[in-house]
Amino acid sequence: MDLGEKISILAGAAKYDASCASSGSSGRASGAADGGLGYREPAGICHSWTGDGRCISLLKVLYSNVCRYDCAYCVNRASADTKRVSFTSQELADLTIEFYRRNYIEGLFLSSGIFSDPDIVMEKLIETAKKLRTEHGYGGYIHMKIIPGTGDKMIREAGLWADRLSANIELPTDLSLKNLAPQKNGREILGAMEDVADTTAQYEEDRRRIRTTPDFAPSGQSTQLIVGASEENDRQIISLSGALYRKFGLRRVYYSAFTPVGVPGRGGIPDPRLPDIPGPPLVREHRLYQADWLLRFYHFSSEEILDGATPFLDKHLDPKTAWALKNLRRFPIEINRADYEELLRVPGIGATSARRIIEVRRSRSLSFDSLRRIGVVLKRARYFITVSGGFIDRPEDPGRIRRILSDSDGAGLQLPLFDF
Ligand code: SF4
């Protein structure tokens, strides 16, 4: 099989992993022939964010789509009727360098099916990264998956060559893992995250004493959760994410709307363990990302976002507005007096706007016009604030505010939202 066909199959097989957000790029790099090396879609070029917040293009590819495991939601599962193919470490390192030199990519997202013992698979991924770093002098970004079941020795080796590591938790409970990914073990996956967190802390500690201590996964670790393949509610998902951020210092949890994969052309016969849904629950995925922002940047706890009485996020309202409407007694807040934490709770005021408000307020009082200039979204904030005692609108009649601020069908939403 020629290399072009391998790339096409193994990049296509990698695209369901959301821990690197796909750009949906479909154009052709200038001068490249159809199906050739410069054709971006089949080659699996996606966009992701580095630890310092830069958006970069990655070659997102599997080392192999041969897999012993049979995760019901996966196109590469052992029982799927799909063409199987593997790279060699040399092929994949050479390919990455070729793409890098042509400026098609700034990094590599590397994962694999479990074609052998997990440590052996991990060793192949590490070998590829090592070749890139040592033989080609490659200094670009590498995001490497931790293969489920990999031992801690391999994990510690992987972090020396990769910028980011990720162990995919995939499903929110042990029961769902047992039903849909029976060969995976939730404890092992959490154990891998703990290993990464502990080793990172160890390297940081060492660096304080020995300046030449090498970097260990300097862009941290992330994980992916599949949404809609199992029965858990949003509250369970958000509680799990909150715990992962707290315990293991994850940089990101990615939410991936379950894509039915059993239809013809996407891996064969439908798996009876999976829900029969017409398409991926994209609005739910979007709301989970918004709730995740509340956890990471707005200092919300998972219990504040959802409780036993409302276990699902509102399809028609962003979670911050939904929280504000449930807690109207806390509003309005006075813009010229509120502290940073109070400002963060106002729909329409993001972290940047809140900081700017505090900054500007040191020299003068703010008006509604200055709020607009700072970037406050007054269309949302107007119901929840006063400015020097004055209102645009009052926090009364939550039903009316809800009608005005609702998305009609939750569709057409943009990601990510920094200022909601
Ligand atoms: S381990 Fe599961 S999710 Fe990963 S490639 Fe194999 S079948 Fe797919």
UniProtKB/TrEMBL annotation:
GO molecular function: catalytic activity; DNA binding; iron-sulfur cluster binding; metal ion binding
Sequence ranges assigned to domain Helix-hairpin-helix DNA-binding motif class in this UniProt record: 341-360
Gene3D superfamilies tied to this protein: Aldolase class I, Photosystem II 12 kDa extrinsic protein
InterPro entries: Aldolase_TIM, DNA_rSAM_put, Endo/Exo/Phosphatase_dom_1, Hlx-hairpin-Hlx_DNA-bd_motif, rSAM, rSAM_sf, RuvA_2-like
Keywords, in A-Z order: Iron, Iron-sulfur, Metal-binding, S-adenosyl-L-methionine
Protein name: Putative DNA modification/repair radical SAM protein
SUPFAM superfamilies documented for this protein: Radical SAM enzymes, RuvA domain 2-like
GO terms classed as biological process: DNA repair
This protein's record includes keyword Magnesium: no
Cofactor(s) required, per the database record: [4Fe-4S] cluster
